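Hello Y.,

Per our agreement to keep a running log of every chain we model this quarter, I'm adding this entry. I've kept the format consistent with earlier entries: sequence first, then predicted structure.
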Amino acid sequence: MDSDPEVMAHLGGPRDEAGTRDYLERNLAHWADHGFGLWVLRAVPSREVVGRACVRHVVVDECDEVEIGYGFLPAYWGRGWATEIAQACVNLAFTRLDCPSVVGLTRPMNRASQRVLGKVGLVLEREVQLEGLQHLLFRGRPTDRQESKG
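Predicted structure for the entry above:
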């Protein structure tokens, strides 16, 4: 996924092998430190890798936040899976991890991701810089949404 230009167009651009290795090491360390993090998503029943999702800590404007995130290979776009996994991540953060809020970060031109974040109850809060790139920060709190039934 990291080398796919379409997937990475809204994530800072494709990563080379060393960049992917660094990304993986950071995410494995997050699991070791916090007991949650990045998941690989597989289709049922084929078990084919279709994307990834996360609930993880991220520092934004010198503040520790809990981020939900998701990404799919282009062949799996437009199936509603982003909304489904984003809702599962929000539910996990609020019910299992007892987070007071979650954030979703997306690039300003990624309208599809902005729609997904809105569907799962996150609201645009502000523009931020992250890793040298402009992002929109959406935030949700347990009191801001209705419980998902799924």
